[in-house]
Amino acid sequence: MKEVEKFEIDPNNQYYKIVDDMLLDTAMTELISVKATKTGTCEIPGTVTKLDNYAFYDCTELSEIIVPASVTRIKSSCFHNTDGLKRLIIKKPEGSIDGAPWDAKIFPTWNN
After folding, report:
1. How many domains does the chain have?
2. Is residue 2 part of a domain?
3. Which DSSP string corresponds to 47-91?
């Protein structure tokens, strides 16, 4: 798999949108991918409920990812090869989270 370095979406596209270097569905409930060149902190919008397979693939320059309480599903290898990650904050969900972020090289911080 090759990391995503650039997103381009046709202005007439009805299915996807780009917000802060993140590729999302138009309802902003599914995080599909994050640009590999994104640096610093990535705060996922509070509308997102699902993090897709390899969504953060090769995002080696991210130091922190903040997952909102709205997320109820984290697909496999979501945090694959995020070697620069220092903090993974998962805001405490009301229910449970299906899937696991344990392919990240650090353990998450659970936060209310």
Report:
1. 1
2. no
3. T--EE-TTTTTT-TTEEEEEE-TT--EE-TTTTTT-TT--EEEEE
Pairing of β 87-91 and β 62-67: parallel
112/53 Cα distance (integer angstroms): 25
What pTM value is reported for the model?
0.84
Q: List, for residues 60-71, the tens digit of each pLDDT value.
A: 999 999 999 999
Does the residue 93 lie in any domain?
yes
Q: Which domain holds residue 64?
A: 16-111
For residue 6, being part of any structural domain is answered with no
